[in-house]
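Hi support team,

I submitted a single chain yesterday and got back a structure, but I'm not sure I'm reading the token output correctly. Could someone confirm the output below corresponds to the sequence I sent? I've pasted both exactly as they appear in my results page.

Thanks,
R.
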Amino acid sequence: MRRTILLLATMPLTLFLALALVGCSLGGGGTTAYQKKPPEGTFELPNGHSLYMECRGSGSPTIVLEVGIDEPRSDMSYVQDTLARKYMTCTYDRANNGESGEAPTPRTAGEIVDDLHQLLETADVPGPYVLASSSVGGAFVQLYGRRYSDEVVGVVAMNPDPPADQVVERIHPLFPKEVREEDRVLMRGENPEQIDYFASGEELKQAPPPPPIPFEMILSTKVAGCEGDSLCLKSDDVYVEIEREVAQQWPQSGVRKVDAGHVIFLEKPEVLVDAVKRVASK
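Hi R., thanks for writing in. Yes, this is the structure output for that exact sequence:
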């Protein structure tokens, strides 16, 4: 979750049978169309992990939603239901969360991306995908889009956590030593999901370059927790600089700012819905 610094989803697949009978003057003919029920349930992955996924709706591309750190996937219910009117839309619980099983910690973005890739394959979720995220999920969808660029046609990242090395180099110097030390502990894995931000940042650095697909970053204009504190506000200015630089690495990128708090999709769900539709339509 973004803070002042960083402190601050099977049931066996069932076929739905639809018959369409077409007649003609010389005889009768027919076509049969099959539509799979959207995947839902707990899936056992090749790597031994078990993850819960719930998909709703139909239509391509498939939308995959990533929540922030220690957030329930149910927080995305309204967004998921809205997007499911046009697209198959999926949420899931990362390992060690919700209805999913356990995985060793600390975890990295690469391990989370591997889990998601195996989950989409195991659950037979049709591609291509648009990945949409909030907060720490921003690192996961960026890494997925870069590692599996042949599967992804667009990415949306709302208030993503910045790369750890940039936090240390450009944001930490603004704060007292004790605050920097506390934040480093959090970034090494002492956080609710025990994610190692430093190792995750290195994985992103070593990933293939961002592909030429639509990438939209959405940032808040409100700074949660600053309450007029000048130092906090200054650190947010640096955060925005870093994130604009991250977005510029993507050949087809755009950055938007909205008047909302950190968890934009809860306060203004239409912002995420509209962004996903824009990206999916390109």
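A quick pointer for reading it: The chain is about 35% helix and 25% strand. Let us know if anything else looks off.

Best,
Support desk
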